[in-house]
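Run: sequence + DOR -> complex structure.
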Amino acid sequence: MNASLTIRNAELVLPGRIERADVSVINGRIYAIGYGIPDVGDVINAEGLCLLPGIIDPQVHFREPGADHKEDLHSGSCAAAAGGVTSYLDMPNNVPPVITRQQMAEKKQLAAEKSVVNYGFFMGATSENLDELNAVENVCGIKIFMGSSTGDLLVDNPVVLERIFANGSRLIAVHAEDESVLQTNKDLLNDFSDVRIHSRLRDESAALRATKLAVRLSLQYQRRLHILHLTTEDECDFLRTLPREHRISTEVCPQHFTLTVPECYQKLGTLAQMNPPLRTKRHADALWQALKDGIIDCIATDHAPHTLAEKDQPYGKAPSGMPGVETSLALLLDRVNRNDCTLQEVAFWMSESPAKLYRMKGKGRIEVGQDADLVLVDLTLKKTVTNGELNTRVNWSPYHGMELRGWPVRTIVNGQTVFLNGEVDESVRGREICFAR
Ligand code: DOR
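>> structure
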């Protein structure tokens, strides 16, 4: 393992500024930043490229154990590496769901054997596993599905929700859709043959209601809360009313500000079906604005692969979810090229902010002493997202056919190059992320 190297002549995206300088890495950590620093290890001439802190994707579903025909910790992590993602936080809705210390230990073992980038895991909440949730060590948080989605995890009883919020101190991340609204809508609407019904079944009020309940519980019990994949203007407006010092963080997925209904259902059919659903342009624009305003803290992909055959089934049978870990950075770099945002905002939303809010040790910034998780990007490189040319096992993307300008060209994990010019080095292994309590 060679975890020492020197990167020369890149534009470094540092906290607060962009600066042309050199970086050296020794034993997997950033050793020096500056001019004229001595060579260590391999020397990379990164003239014309920008160096960002490695992207952290704080919400993926890599499907292992239980559904490795869709993805596993190896294939998912290879897709991450190709997308410039050096660390990911993986969800517990596996088969069986990860709800005990024993299952968590087994999943960590699998990741140590198979993941080419760094990893962290959520514990799944049920109505019975409070002791496990509080006793498990070194996880990023507790995941609560307040509304049903892929898998069996669901906690929709307000009494149980309150018990979880009231007991313990670890971060709670919620999938905020209110189950009773979803069920009522199911009873009211009767044409289930068309995927366009999906965004009405899981309407804006379901999201807002669950978000409000989670926020109330978080404030009442002073419990750290993260609201996963925000989708509505209504939720953003509500969050704008909260005190700035609140302990609540939120995220948005690129698909929710990039793809809009009804066009996406016409073009993609059930490939565009996910939970919470894609919404109209009004919501997409409001989410982008909330991200720019700092109301939304970070970007996650909710990478949720299902095979094309599974997705090809009629609405009602087709599962919800779409892949995204491999394309998120490129989508944002394309926005940098269109002057919608800056490279510094991208580094903040996709690395520094998730590292901070999940209290990851040694991640999120290009700084001496930090882990050498880095990504070199070429802002001039144009590529078209193409089904069949991806690393995710399902090998399709909702962005198929989209030309994006700005792509990762080298991904470095703990000082080791794991992705270079289109090729993943499958022999690299990532490490478990350490979370401070
Ligand atoms: O669309 C979704 N798919 N939303 C989720 O909450 C779960 C995910 C999956 O695991 O397929």
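>> summary
The mean pLDDT is 96. The chain has 14 helices and 17 strands.
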